Amino acid sequence: MSVTVDLDHRPPLSFYLSVGLVAGSIIALQIGIMRVFSVGSWAHFGSLVVSLAMFGFGLTSAVMCVGKGWFERHWQGAVKGALLAFGPLMVVCNLAAQQVPFNAIFLISDPMQKWRLLANFVLYFLPFLAGALYLGVVFLKAQKSFNRVYFADLVGSGLCGLSVLLAMYAFTPDDIIMAPLMLWLAGGVLWFVAFGDRRGIAAIVGVAVLSAAVHYVAPPVLGIPKLAVSDYKGVAYVRKFPDNQRVYERASPFGYLEVYSSSYLHFAPGQSDNAAFNLKTMPANAYLGLYIDSEGPSGIIKDLPA
Protein backbone atom coordinates (compact mmCIF):
# COMPACT_ATOMS: atom_id res chain seq x y z
CA MET A 1 0.00 0.00 0.00
CA SER A 2 1.45 3.35 -1.05
CA VAL A 3 1.99 6.15 1.45
CA THR A 4 1.45 9.81 0.63
CA VAL A 5 4.67 11.75 1.23
CA ASP A 6 4.92 15.53 1.14
CA LEU A 7 8.43 16.30 -0.05
CA ASP A 8 8.13 19.90 1.17
CA HIS A 9 7.36 19.04 4.79
CA ARG A 10 9.90 16.76 6.44
CA PRO A 11 9.86 13.61 4.31
CA PRO A 12 11.18 10.41 5.94
CA LEU A 13 14.89 9.72 6.36
CA SER A 14 14.75 7.02 3.69
CA PHE A 15 13.90 9.72 1.15
CA TYR A 16 17.08 11.68 1.91
CA LEU A 17 19.14 8.50 1.89
CA SER A 18 17.69 7.62 -1.50
CA VAL A 19 18.65 11.00 -2.93
CA GLY A 20 22.18 10.68 -1.55
CA LEU A 21 22.70 7.15 -2.86
CA VAL A 22 21.34 7.80 -6.34
CA ALA A 23 23.37 11.00 -6.61
CA GLY A 24 26.37 9.02 -5.39
CA SER A 25 25.77 6.32 -7.98
CA ILE A 26 26.02 8.99 -10.68
CA ILE A 27 29.43 10.02 -9.33
CA ALA A 28 30.43 6.36 -9.03
CA LEU A 29 29.41 5.76 -12.64
CA GLN A 30 31.63 8.62 -13.80
CA ILE A 31 34.61 7.19 -11.91
CA GLY A 32 33.87 3.71 -13.23
CA ILE A 33 33.73 4.86 -16.85
CA MET A 34 37.05 6.68 -16.38
CA ARG A 35 38.59 3.43 -15.20
CA VAL A 36 37.14 1.54 -18.16
CA PHE A 37 38.67 4.02 -20.60
CA SER A 38 41.98 4.00 -18.74
CA VAL A 39 42.35 0.22 -18.87
CA GLY A 40 40.66 -0.47 -22.19
CA SER A 41 41.81 2.42 -24.35
CA TRP A 42 42.95 5.88 -23.26
CA ALA A 43 42.39 7.68 -19.96
CA HIS A 44 42.36 11.07 -21.70
CA PHE A 45 38.97 10.34 -23.27
CA GLY A 46 37.58 8.88 -20.06
CA SER A 47 37.88 12.26 -18.34
CA LEU A 48 35.35 13.64 -20.82
CA VAL A 49 32.69 11.63 -19.01
CA VAL A 50 32.35 14.56 -16.59
CA SER A 51 31.26 16.69 -19.53
CA LEU A 52 28.78 14.00 -20.55
CA ALA A 53 27.26 13.99 -17.07
CA MET A 54 26.97 17.78 -17.05
CA PHE A 55 25.43 17.71 -20.51
CA GLY A 56 22.89 15.17 -19.26
CA PHE A 57 21.92 17.44 -16.38
CA GLY A 58 21.77 20.47 -18.66
CA LEU A 59 19.60 18.78 -21.27
CA THR A 60 17.27 17.36 -18.64
CA SER A 61 16.92 20.77 -16.99
CA ALA A 62 16.07 22.39 -20.31
CA VAL A 63 13.39 19.80 -21.08
CA MET A 64 11.94 20.13 -17.59
CA CYS A 65 11.78 23.91 -17.91
CA VAL A 66 9.79 23.59 -21.12
CA GLY A 67 7.49 20.91 -19.73
CA LYS A 68 7.41 22.00 -16.08
CA GLY A 69 3.66 21.61 -15.78
CA TRP A 70 3.72 18.05 -17.08
CA PHE A 71 6.50 17.01 -14.71
CA GLU A 72 4.68 18.57 -11.75
CA ARG A 73 1.56 16.56 -12.56
CA HIS A 74 3.32 13.28 -13.34
CA TRP A 75 6.32 13.55 -11.05
CA GLN A 76 5.89 10.17 -9.37
CA GLY A 77 5.73 8.33 -12.67
CA ALA A 78 8.73 10.26 -13.97
CA VAL A 79 10.78 9.38 -10.89
CA LYS A 80 9.81 5.71 -11.06
CA GLY A 81 10.63 5.51 -14.74
CA ALA A 82 13.99 7.24 -14.27
CA LEU A 83 14.91 4.99 -11.34
CA LEU A 84 13.96 1.77 -13.09
CA ALA A 85 15.84 2.79 -16.25
CA PHE A 86 19.02 4.12 -14.64
CA GLY A 87 20.50 0.78 -13.54
CA PRO A 88 19.86 -1.21 -16.72
CA LEU A 89 21.18 1.66 -18.84
CA MET A 90 24.46 1.57 -16.89
CA VAL A 91 25.02 -2.08 -17.73
CA VAL A 92 23.64 -2.24 -21.26
CA CYS A 93 25.30 0.97 -22.46
CA ASN A 94 28.65 0.03 -20.95
CA LEU A 95 28.48 -3.41 -22.57
CA ALA A 96 27.43 -1.92 -25.92
CA ALA A 97 30.23 0.65 -25.81
CA GLN A 98 32.79 -2.14 -25.46
CA GLN A 99 31.69 -3.51 -28.82
CA VAL A 100 32.56 -0.25 -30.62
CA PRO A 101 36.25 -0.55 -31.59
CA PHE A 102 37.55 2.97 -30.97
CA ASN A 103 41.31 3.52 -31.36
CA ALA A 104 42.69 6.97 -30.59
CA ILE A 105 45.90 6.30 -32.55
CA PHE A 106 43.95 6.50 -35.82
CA LEU A 107 41.72 9.40 -34.79
CA ILE A 108 43.22 11.65 -37.48
CA SER A 109 43.93 9.15 -40.25
CA ASP A 110 40.72 7.12 -40.00
CA PRO A 111 37.49 9.18 -40.22
CA MET A 112 35.49 6.28 -38.76
CA GLN A 113 37.25 6.67 -35.42
CA LYS A 114 35.48 9.99 -34.84
CA TRP A 115 32.12 8.31 -35.28
CA ARG A 116 33.13 5.44 -33.02
CA LEU A 117 34.20 7.90 -30.34
CA LEU A 118 30.87 9.69 -30.77
CA ALA A 119 29.05 6.37 -30.42
CA ASN A 120 30.92 5.73 -27.16
CA PHE A 121 29.94 9.13 -25.81
CA VAL A 122 26.29 8.75 -26.84
CA LEU A 123 26.05 5.35 -25.18
CA TYR A 124 27.64 6.57 -21.96
CA PHE A 125 25.49 9.70 -22.06
CA LEU A 126 22.18 7.82 -21.81
CA PRO A 127 22.48 6.63 -18.17
CA PHE A 128 23.19 10.18 -17.02
CA LEU A 129 19.93 11.33 -18.59
CA ALA A 130 18.00 8.94 -16.36
CA GLY A 131 19.96 9.91 -13.25
CA ALA A 132 19.55 13.61 -13.98
CA LEU A 133 15.81 13.18 -14.53
CA TYR A 134 15.42 11.55 -11.12
CA LEU A 135 17.28 14.33 -9.30
CA GLY A 136 15.65 17.06 -11.37
CA VAL A 137 12.12 15.92 -10.56
CA VAL A 138 12.98 15.51 -6.88
CA PHE A 139 14.36 19.06 -6.72
CA LEU A 140 11.28 20.33 -8.56
CA LYS A 141 8.90 18.80 -6.03
CA ALA A 142 10.96 19.58 -2.92
CA GLN A 143 11.43 23.30 -3.42
CA LYS A 144 10.63 24.27 0.18
CA SER A 145 13.03 21.67 1.57
CA PHE A 146 15.59 22.18 -1.19
CA ASN A 147 18.41 22.97 1.24
CA ARG A 148 18.08 19.62 3.01
CA VAL A 149 17.63 17.67 -0.22
CA TYR A 150 20.65 19.33 -1.80
CA PHE A 151 22.67 18.61 1.34
CA ALA A 152 21.76 14.93 0.99
CA ASP A 153 22.79 15.10 -2.67
CA LEU A 154 26.22 16.56 -1.89
CA VAL A 155 26.98 14.34 1.10
CA GLY A 156 25.86 11.24 -0.77
CA SER A 157 27.96 12.14 -3.79
CA GLY A 158 31.06 12.65 -1.67
CA LEU A 159 30.70 9.52 0.43
CA CYS A 160 29.76 7.32 -2.51
CA GLY A 161 32.69 8.70 -4.47
CA LEU A 162 34.96 7.52 -1.67
CA SER A 163 33.18 4.18 -1.47
CA VAL A 164 33.74 3.45 -5.15
CA LEU A 165 37.46 3.93 -4.58
CA LEU A 166 37.28 1.21 -1.94
CA ALA A 167 35.20 -0.89 -4.33
CA MET A 168 38.16 -0.88 -6.71
CA TYR A 169 39.84 -3.33 -4.35
CA ALA A 170 36.93 -5.73 -4.79
CA PHE A 171 36.03 -5.26 -8.46
CA THR A 172 38.37 -5.49 -11.42
CA PRO A 173 37.89 -2.80 -14.10
CA ASP A 174 35.71 -5.06 -16.24
CA ASP A 175 33.31 -5.45 -13.30
CA ILE A 176 33.60 -1.95 -11.79
CA ILE A 177 30.17 -1.10 -13.22
CA MET A 178 28.73 -3.18 -10.37
CA ALA A 179 29.72 -0.52 -7.82
CA PRO A 180 27.36 2.20 -9.13
CA LEU A 181 24.76 -0.48 -9.84
CA MET A 182 24.71 -1.50 -6.17
CA LEU A 183 24.47 2.11 -5.01
CA TRP A 184 21.59 2.70 -7.42
CA LEU A 185 19.79 -0.39 -6.14
CA ALA A 186 20.12 0.74 -2.52
CA GLY A 187 18.89 4.23 -3.39
CA GLY A 188 15.99 2.90 -5.44
CA VAL A 189 14.84 0.51 -2.72
CA LEU A 190 14.93 3.31 -0.14
CA TRP A 191 12.87 5.54 -2.43
CA PHE A 192 10.10 2.97 -2.67
CA VAL A 193 10.38 2.27 1.07
CA ALA A 194 9.76 5.97 1.73
CA PHE A 195 6.54 5.77 -0.26
CA GLY A 196 5.51 2.32 0.97
CA ASP A 197 5.52 0.99 -2.58
CA ARG A 198 6.08 -2.76 -2.30
CA ARG A 199 5.57 -3.33 -6.01
CA GLY A 200 8.21 -0.73 -6.72
CA ILE A 201 10.64 -2.50 -4.38
CA ALA A 202 10.03 -5.83 -6.11
CA ALA A 203 10.35 -4.21 -9.53
CA ILE A 204 13.68 -2.51 -8.86
CA VAL A 205 15.16 -5.61 -7.22
CA GLY A 206 14.08 -7.68 -10.22
CA VAL A 207 15.54 -5.15 -12.65
CA ALA A 208 18.81 -5.08 -10.68
CA VAL A 209 19.11 -8.88 -10.74
CA LEU A 210 18.40 -8.92 -14.47
CA SER A 211 20.99 -6.17 -15.07
CA ALA A 212 23.65 -8.05 -13.11
CA ALA A 213 22.79 -11.23 -15.02
CA VAL A 214 23.23 -9.41 -18.33
CA HIS A 215 26.63 -8.13 -17.23
CA TYR A 216 27.95 -11.50 -16.09
CA VAL A 217 26.12 -13.95 -18.36
CA ALA A 218 25.71 -12.19 -21.72
CA PRO A 219 29.44 -11.74 -22.56
CA PRO A 220 30.45 -15.43 -22.29
CA VAL A 221 27.23 -16.59 -23.96
CA LEU A 222 27.51 -14.13 -26.86
CA GLY A 223 31.30 -14.28 -27.04
CA ILE A 224 31.75 -10.54 -26.47
CA PRO A 225 34.14 -8.78 -24.07
CA LYS A 226 33.02 -7.02 -20.90
CA LEU A 227 35.99 -4.70 -21.32
CA ALA A 228 37.59 -4.48 -24.75
CA VAL A 229 41.32 -3.70 -24.56
CA SER A 230 42.81 -1.86 -27.53
CA ASP A 231 45.19 -3.90 -29.68
CA TYR A 232 47.71 -1.13 -29.18
CA LYS A 233 47.86 -1.45 -25.40
CA GLY A 234 50.86 -3.39 -24.12
CA VAL A 235 48.88 -6.16 -22.47
CA ALA A 236 47.10 -6.93 -25.75
CA TYR A 237 50.41 -8.13 -27.20
CA VAL A 238 51.34 -10.49 -24.39
CA ARG A 239 47.87 -12.03 -24.38
CA LYS A 240 48.52 -13.17 -27.95
CA PHE A 241 51.71 -15.05 -27.06
CA PRO A 242 51.09 -18.82 -27.31
CA ASP A 243 52.52 -19.60 -23.87
CA ASN A 244 51.32 -16.52 -21.98
CA GLN A 245 50.16 -17.05 -18.43
CA ARG A 246 48.88 -14.44 -16.03
CA VAL A 247 50.59 -15.20 -12.74
CA TYR A 248 49.39 -12.22 -10.72
CA GLU A 249 46.44 -9.85 -10.78
CA ARG A 250 45.43 -7.12 -8.39
CA ALA A 251 42.90 -4.31 -8.64
CA SER A 252 43.09 -1.17 -6.52
CA PRO A 253 42.49 2.59 -6.79
CA PHE A 254 46.18 2.92 -7.66
CA GLY A 255 45.84 0.90 -10.84
CA TYR A 256 45.06 -2.51 -12.25
CA LEU A 257 48.19 -4.66 -11.97
CA GLU A 258 48.77 -7.76 -14.08
CA VAL A 259 51.92 -9.87 -14.26
CA TYR A 260 52.44 -12.24 -17.18
CA SER A 261 54.92 -15.01 -17.82
CA SER A 262 56.02 -15.96 -21.34
CA SER A 263 59.15 -17.14 -23.13
CA TYR A 264 58.59 -14.27 -25.57
CA LEU A 265 59.27 -11.65 -22.90
CA HIS A 266 62.85 -10.34 -23.03
CA PHE A 267 64.39 -7.40 -21.21
CA ALA A 268 67.85 -5.85 -21.11
CA PRO A 269 69.14 -6.33 -17.53
CA GLY A 270 69.60 -3.13 -15.56
CA GLN A 271 71.26 -2.28 -12.27
CA SER A 272 68.53 -4.06 -10.33
CA ASP A 273 69.19 -7.28 -12.26
CA ASN A 274 72.91 -7.68 -11.53
CA ALA A 275 72.23 -11.05 -9.97
CA ALA A 276 71.73 -12.48 -13.43
CA PHE A 277 75.36 -11.78 -14.36
CA ASN A 278 76.57 -14.17 -11.66
CA LEU A 279 74.68 -17.12 -13.11
CA LYS A 280 76.45 -19.55 -15.41
CA THR A 281 73.25 -20.24 -17.31
CA MET A 282 70.30 -17.91 -17.53
CA PRO A 283 67.13 -19.84 -16.63
CA ALA A 284 64.32 -19.99 -19.14
CA ASN A 285 61.56 -17.42 -18.67
CA ALA A 286 63.71 -15.49 -16.22
CA TYR A 287 61.64 -12.35 -16.55
CA LEU A 288 58.03 -11.49 -15.94
CA GLY A 289 56.14 -8.62 -17.55
CA LEU A 290 54.32 -6.12 -15.31
CA TYR A 291 51.38 -4.22 -16.78
CA ILE A 292 49.61 -1.33 -15.06
CA ASP A 293 46.24 -0.38 -16.53
CA SER A 294 47.17 -2.48 -19.58
CA GLU A 295 50.32 -0.42 -20.20
CA GLY A 296 53.74 -2.05 -20.21
CA PRO A 297 55.58 -4.27 -19.91
CA SER A 298 58.03 -3.47 -17.15
CA GLY A 299 60.52 -6.27 -16.64
CA ILE A 300 60.62 -8.12 -13.33
CA ILE A 301 63.36 -10.68 -12.74
CA LYS A 302 62.24 -13.85 -11.01
CA ASP A 303 63.63 -15.17 -7.75
CA LEU A 304 66.51 -17.05 -9.38
CA PRO A 305 68.46 -19.92 -7.77
CA ALA A 306 71.77 -19.04 -6.13
Descriptive notes:
- This protein is α+β, with helices and mostly antiparallel strands.
- The chain folds into two domains: 13-222, Growth Hormone, Chain: A (Up-down Bundle), CATH 1.20.1250; 234-301, no CATH class.
- The chain is built from ten helices and four strands.
- The chain has helices spanning 13-40, 43-46, 49-66, 68-73, 75-97, 112-141, 146-170, 178-194, 198-222, 234-238, and strands spanning 245-252, 255-261, 287-292, 295-301.
- Strands 1-2-3-4 form a four-stranded antiparallel β-sheet.
- The termini are far apart.
How many structural domains?
Answer: 2
H/E series, N to C? Answer: HHHHHHHHHHEEEE
N-to-C CA distance: 75 Å
Number of helices: 10
CATH architectural arrangement of the largest domain: Up-down Bundle
Outline the low-pLDDT stretches.
none
Indicate the percent of residues in helices.
55-70%
Shape: elongated
For the biggest β-sheet, the strand order reads 1-2-3-4
Topology-level CATH name of the largest domain: Growth Hormone, Chain: A
As a percent range, the share of strand residues is 5-15%
Give the averaged pLDDT, no decimals: 87
